[in-house]
């Protein structure tokens, strides 16, 4: 039975096309699962340079994530569309982490994060006609178990490259859940988008029906 995707007219106004300025499968999946109809584009933004400048200017991780989300939303030519830009930074003990580039990188990162609490500074913005019209940040806190090296080896064998698409080297909706003993915050936000706040903003902008 194919997944039932409600026709756009039932859930949103066709006059305001929606564009996701992100290459994130996780973000796309969450919007699709909510029944939204949208286009997606991967923004060409030099994230490392923006992060470096922000850090040098003394910005915290939440402000930096907002700057990145805005840069992504403004980097795509949206025309009349409402454009969603988002970014997620991971910080632990004031150190910032990026998406691991290899399983060895993921192993090293998880060994550093285990037994500690880290924060996922998750920013989302809406832009229209080249202007950012809405900004939002949520900062869930996730406490990792002090898991064994044997567990970590088995986890990486089970997850493989799937864990490289996430800033924390885990998929909360997958075996990543086994890494944690406590989580404060919204699971959608952890997966990359504060969906409830975003849906409320899209209703405010008359993109989604109230
Ligand atoms: N499936 C899944 N993805 C997660 C989870 N936690 C974080 N992520 C993903 C969401 C984002 O795709 C990624 C955070 O990195 P970024 O915000 O830089 O986005 P990304 O580079 O993926 O795409 P973008 O820069 O927006 O084109 O981590 C999780 O628990 N599950």
From TrEMBL:
<comment type="function">
    <text>Nucleoside triphosphate pyrophosphatase. May have a dual role in cell division arrest and in preventing the incorporation of modified nucleotides into cellular nucleic acids.</text>
</comment>
<dbReference type="InterPro" id="IPR003697">
    <property type="entry name" value="Maf-like"/>
</dbReference>
<dbReference type="Pfam" id="PF02545">
    <property type="entry name" value="Maf"/>
</dbReference>
<dbReference type="GO" id="GO:0047429">
    <property type="term" value="F:nucleoside triphosphate diphosphatase activity"/>
</dbReference>
<feature type="active site" description="Proton acceptor">
    <location>
        <position position="87"/>
    </location>
</feature>
<keyword id="KW-0378">Hydrolase</keyword>
<dbReference type="InterPro" id="IPR029001">
    <property type="entry name" value="ITPase-like_fam"/>
</dbReference>
<keyword id="KW-0546">Nucleotide metabolism</keyword>
<dbReference type="GO" id="GO:0005737">
    <property type="term" value="C:cytoplasm"/>
</dbReference>
<keyword id="KW-0963">Cytoplasm</keyword>
<dbReference type="GO" id="GO:0009117">
    <property type="term" value="P:nucleotide metabolic process"/>
</dbReference>
<protein>
    <recommendedName>
        <fullName>Nucleoside triphosphate pyrophosphatase</fullName>
        <ecNumber>3.6.1.9</ecNumber>
    </recommendedName>
</protein>
<comment type="similarity">
    <text>Belongs to the Maf family.</text>
</comment>
């Amino acid at each position: 039975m194919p997944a039932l995707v409600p026709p756009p007219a039932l859930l949103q106004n066709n006059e305001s096309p929606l564009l996701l300025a992100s290459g994130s499968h996780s973000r796309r999946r969450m919007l699709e699962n909510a029944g939204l109809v949208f286009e997606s584009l991967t923004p060409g933004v030099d994230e490392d340079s923006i992060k470096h400048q922000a850090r040098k200017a003394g910005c915290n991780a939440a402000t930096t994530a907002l700057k990145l989300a805005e840069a992504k939303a403004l980097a795509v030519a949206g025309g009349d569309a409402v454009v969603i830009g988002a970014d997620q930074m991971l910080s632990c003990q004031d150190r910032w982490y990026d998406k691991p580039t290899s399983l060895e990188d993921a192993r090293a990162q998880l060994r550093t994060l285990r037994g500690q609490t880290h924060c996922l500074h998750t920013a989302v913005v809406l832009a229209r006609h080249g202007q950012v019209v809405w900004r939002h940040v949520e900062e869930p806190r996730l406490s990792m178990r002090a898991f064994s090296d044997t567990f970590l080896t088995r986890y990486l064998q089970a997850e493989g490259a799937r864990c490289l698409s996430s800033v924390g080297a885990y998929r909360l909706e997958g075996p990543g859940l086994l890494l944690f003993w406590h989580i404060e915050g919204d699971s959608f936000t952890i997966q990359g988008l504060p969906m409830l706040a975003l849906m409320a903003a899209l209703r405010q902008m008359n993109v989604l029906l109230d």
